[in-house]
Structure formats: structure tokens, C-alpha cells
Amino acid sequence: MILDVDGVAFNYRSASVIRDITFELSPHQVLAILGPNGVGKTTLLKCMNAILRPKSGSVLIEGADLLTADRMEIARKVGYVPQRCEAGRVTVFDAVLLGRRPHIGWDMTDKDIRIVEAAIRMLHLEDLALRYIDEMSGGELQKVSIARALVQEPRVLLLDEPTSSLDLRNQLEILGIVRRVTTEHDVAAVMTMHDLNMALRYADRFILLKDGVIHAAGGPDVVTPEIIEAVYGVPVTVERYNGFRFVVPLDPETA
Ligand SMILES: Nc1ncnc2c1ncn2[C@@H]1O[C@H](COP(=O)(O)OP(=O)(O)OP(=O)(O)O)[C@@H](O)[C@H]1O
């Protein structure tokens, strides 16, 4: 097991947001965390990266307690791609290089440069490598943020709506990269997503949150019309095409 989340609960001030969140993830698995706006998906990701301290529960990575680790140790284990990235006056190359910080002291080696170059190429950012990130589009910035998380060489990759600013081609490319990285390395990924069909195509585990708790969890067969309607309040049918499930919303008036 690479990730073990047990009984995690979090409150903002006195308001409970998530509770009793328990699940495990093995290397090579891609988990999609699904659920309506405001249900606590980002809050859960932040608890899994110790950006937020859960009120109770534990997060273990390869058996080690993440919540008592120091920031550098966490950054060697967890790569986090936030929903919105801060854009400062640094070039794309330097922004990606920052992801190597947990692995290096004040100097860097040829290996670090090679890892940064490979990530820039993987995300097709070569032509933008010397551009300043505060002059980039939302989608370009999202790709920089993903490249930075990859060069951390984490064991667990957390991505908060990683395709929200991306066009269709870039969505397929980024989710394909997440799939490839988790297939080729002993890495697991957790993504929050709103696009159920992209989730069904690229993830193999699913958690559906409702009212701050896990309403359903499992493989693709957990995505049923009954569960989707219970979680999102929208009638749907689930179709199959080319081995994938597709969620098709129905007209609430006629369903
Ligand atoms: N800093 C904060 N202080 C107080 N409440 C917060 C804070 N951040 C988020 N919340 C509240 O916590 C709840 C969960 O927010 P969260 O961002 O985790 O939801 P989400 O499922 O990721 O939503 P979305 O799909 O819209 O991104 C929401 O009701 C939100 O208003």
C-alpha cells in the first residue's frame, strides 16, 4: 500500500467539512475523487498534503505518518498540483526547477537539469521554457504546475481539477501523462474531477463524496445511475462505448 488514509476529518472553524474518510491506494492506481461543488474534495487533498491539519485521522505514505513529517520530507513524497497556481516573475524553466528543491541543497547536478528538461518536454513546454509564468494563460500555467510536481518524483501525485483550464487536446494529454507516470513508476495519483467521463476513462478507483462523507467507493462499476443521482441530484444513464462507461445526463423534466 502506498497511501493509507484512515478516519480523516476536517473542520473549518466549527463547521465540519469532511469526516470518516478512509481509503487505501496501491502503486499504479489512479483515484478520482468526485462530488458536487463545496463537498470537500479540495479540503481532502489539502489534508493529504498536510497543508491542512485534519481534526482527527491519519495519512500514511508507505507506512510513514505524513502529518508529523517536515515540509521537505512531505515534498519528496507528495506532489501537489493546486486548482489555482500562483504566478510570480520567474521563467517556466525556473518554476519547474523549483520542484527539485526537496532533493537538492544549494547546488544542482546534471541529473536535476535532465529531469527538469524531460518534464518540460513531456508537457510540450519547450517553446515557453524561457517565458515568465506571470505572462502565461491559465492552461499553460496548469501544465507548468504539473511539470513542477512531476520533477519532485513523488510517490503520490495529488491533482486538484488538473484539466479545469485545459482544451480537449490538452486534457487528453495531461490525463494520459498521469496514467503513464503511474503505470511506469511506483506512483499513485489522486485527482479531484468534475468531468465524470474523463474520470471514467483515466481513473481506475473512484470515491464519491456526499455531505462530507464517502457515499460510494470502488472500481468503475461503482458509477451507477442510482449513485450519480444520489450524489449530484441529476438523473443520468450510464452507457458503454469502447470498453469505457459514459455518464449521460437526462432531462430532469422527462426522466
Ligand atoms: N478557508 C476556508 N474557510 C472556511 N470555509 C472554507 C474554506 N475553504 C473552503 N471552505 C468551505 O469548505 C467546504 C468545502 O470546500 P472545498 O473547496 O473543499 O470543496 P470542493 O468539493 O473542492 O468544491 P469545488 O468542487 O467547488 O472546488 C465549502 O463549503 C467551502 O465553502
Automatic annotation (TrEMBL):
<keyword id="KW-0067">ATP-binding</keyword>
<keyword id="KW-0813">Transport</keyword>
<dbReference type="GO" id="GO:0005524">
    <property type="term" value="F:ATP binding"/>
</dbReference>
<dbReference type="InterPro" id="IPR027417">
    <property type="entry name" value="P-loop_NTPase"/>
</dbReference>
<dbReference type="InterPro" id="IPR003439">
    <property type="entry name" value="ABC_transporter-like_ATP-bd"/>
</dbReference>
<dbReference type="InterPro" id="IPR017871">
    <property type="entry name" value="ABC_transporter-like_CS"/>
</dbReference>
<dbReference type="Pfam" id="PF00005">
    <property type="entry name" value="ABC_tran"/>
</dbReference>
<feature type="domain" description="ABC transporter">
    <location>
        <begin position="3"/>
        <end position="236"/>
    </location>
</feature>
<dbReference type="InterPro" id="IPR003593">
    <property type="entry name" value="AAA+_ATPase"/>
</dbReference>
<dbReference type="InterPro" id="IPR050153">
    <property type="entry name" value="Metal_Ion_Import_ABC"/>
</dbReference>
<comment type="similarity">
    <text>Belongs to the ABC transporter superfamily.</text>
</comment>
<protein>
    <submittedName>
        <fullName>ABC transporter ATP-binding protein</fullName>
    </submittedName>
</protein>
<keyword id="KW-0547">Nucleotide-binding</keyword>
